[in-house]
Amino acid sequence: MSDMPSCQFESRPRRIVIGAGGAQTDFCTTCSVRPTSVCSVIGPDDISRLSEAAVETIIPPGRGFIEEGAPATDFFNVTSGTVKLFKALPDGRRQITGFASPGHFLGLAVSDNYAFGAEAVDTVRVCRFSRDKMADLLDDFPKLERRLLEEASNELVAAQNQMLLLGRKTARERVASFLLDQMHASQLPGQENGGRLHLPMTRGDIADYLGLTIETVSRTLSWMRSQGMIEVGKGYAITILSVAKLDVLAAGNS
Amino acid sequence: MSDMPSCQFESRPRRIVIGAGGAQTDFCTTCSVRPTSVCSVIGPDDISRLSEAAVETIIPPGRGFIEEGAPATDFFNVTSGTVKLFKALPDGRRQITGFASPGHFLGLAVSDNYAFGAEAVDTVRVCRFSRDKMADLLDDFPKLERRLLEEASNELVAAQNQMLLLGRKTARERVASFLLDQMHASQLPGQENGGRLHLPMTRGDIADYLGLTIETVSRTLSWMRSQGMIEVGKGYAITILSVAKLDVLAAGNS
DNA sequence: CGGGTAGTTGATGGTCATCAAGGGGGGTGG
DNA sequence: CCACCCCCCTTGATGACCATCAACTACCCG
């Protein structure tokens, strides 16, 4: 797990297509996460700047691409798949600090070294920006800075919620909170999907995220099933049968 | 604890002193935390803008001044004392997400409501900025935005460390980490103080910060004393006798 | 078919929460 | 000034929750 070679990329540089009139068209215009990501602050006129700076990278499941403590050379924007962010203790204990889904920006760090590791949960595509190019973009597009501040503030709020969960919630409350969070995250605004969830991560990842063990997560899910709260399908499918019951649990009633 | 009236200020507006030549001098020029706080990005020429926007507020120990969930009307900059930031569950369980010391900026939130509560640990002085005035400052001083992003990034790193602590460390490891953090925070660069610490917060606060109970914190400190790691003085004084032993503990060896 | 990974379930134990009692300091009021 | 109270802290006894150890199933892939 920790002896896995990290920072190995399968990169393919963006192709810049020169249009008939000399105008540049490129990947970014058709990027599916552009509307919801930080990239949206850069207007159509300047989008070529973005494309030149970005390198699309595909990362297979389980592969690490940010190593905790390594020099922070790049920033990333997730365009598909799910990334787990984590910190580890010398003896191998691991805490997943968050899951990054499409549209999320990775690498906010003042230090010259990454403060956390990152690993692909399923197949992940990211846009990679070098530190230098990112700095140029920040200088030229002040809006980008404001957007990143927003992003950071949101993550800060999420982190505070997670601290409350880790410090003060019971196992049942943690799992309930997790399932509800996943439900909200998977729901595009105005869309219901009958409580059906597809969790890309393993029980081990969930455990490392919630500060529990695999066994406790498994037992808790089984207990929730026995209470008619959820249905546990094959693979990574879970269906929430009673949001209300989970809400009661997550808010802190045993 | 939760029925305490919050958001009660003892404010005194900044006095703007008009100098002989018509130049404005004011509190901000003599502010002791200016060099280390976000305010430092606003140069001497524009400092009057800052002073006009800020209201100095004194908060007595134990008084809350940000209520979780209340409309986010103001931002704060701590100028002296220590503030605890926290989130709570309906049944009263509480998690302190951080302690803000002089120079720290509070209120980063995209939402219209505060995501956390804040309460003075000892006597606290803050500079208060209304949301509107802060927005004006952000528009006029782009550097301020970059500085806030730095601030947020640092807090994010701290939050990730705290998640690792809460999710994966034992009680002893937590207390050791806490003492070392406090030591580093209290050491001005290039200054040693013989491991002597003055913790402004109670055992209860420490417990709520570390995800433990008062009793466990107390027992753990007693155990560390019995091991010759620390000395527990009267009041809130603690002396670290062996940084090395605490380091071993904090890194994760029992 | 064999091996590896992921998940579930059971038995047991350890760590830390809970319940309880007592000490010490600081404030207020008699 | 001292009594009284309240808060904070400490220490002890007990127990609950969850980690650990272990066995077993299912599934995937060669």
Automatic annotation (TrEMBL), chains A, B:
<keyword id="KW-0238">DNA-binding</keyword>
<dbReference type="GO" id="GO:0005829">
    <property type="term" value="C:cytosol"/>
</dbReference>
<keyword id="KW-0805">Transcription regulation</keyword>
<feature type="domain" description="HTH crp-type">
    <location>
        <begin position="169"/>
        <end position="244"/>
    </location>
</feature>
<keyword id="KW-0804">Transcription</keyword>
<dbReference type="InterPro" id="IPR012318">
    <property type="entry name" value="HTH_CRP"/>
</dbReference>
<dbReference type="InterPro" id="IPR014710">
    <property type="entry name" value="RmlC-like_jellyroll"/>
</dbReference>
<dbReference type="InterPro" id="IPR050397">
    <property type="entry name" value="Env_Response_Regulators"/>
</dbReference>
<dbReference type="GO" id="GO:0003677">
    <property type="term" value="F:DNA binding"/>
</dbReference>
<dbReference type="Pfam" id="PF00027">
    <property type="entry name" value="cNMP_binding"/>
</dbReference>
<dbReference type="GO" id="GO:0003700">
    <property type="term" value="F:DNA-binding transcription factor activity"/>
</dbReference>
<feature type="domain" description="Cyclic nucleotide-binding">
    <location>
        <begin position="38"/>
        <end position="107"/>
    </location>
</feature>
<dbReference type="Pfam" id="PF13545">
    <property type="entry name" value="HTH_Crp_2"/>
</dbReference>
<dbReference type="InterPro" id="IPR018490">
    <property type="entry name" value="cNMP-bd_dom_sf"/>
</dbReference>
<dbReference type="InterPro" id="IPR018335">
    <property type="entry name" value="Tscrpt_reg_HTH_Crp-type_CS"/>
</dbReference>
<dbReference type="InterPro" id="IPR036390">
    <property type="entry name" value="WH_DNA-bd_sf"/>
</dbReference>
<dbReference type="InterPro" id="IPR000595">
    <property type="entry name" value="cNMP-bd_dom"/>
</dbReference>
<protein>
    <submittedName>
        <fullName>Nitrogen fixation regulation protein FixK</fullName>
    </submittedName>
</protein>
<dbReference type="InterPro" id="IPR036388">
    <property type="entry name" value="WH-like_DNA-bd_sf"/>
</dbReference>
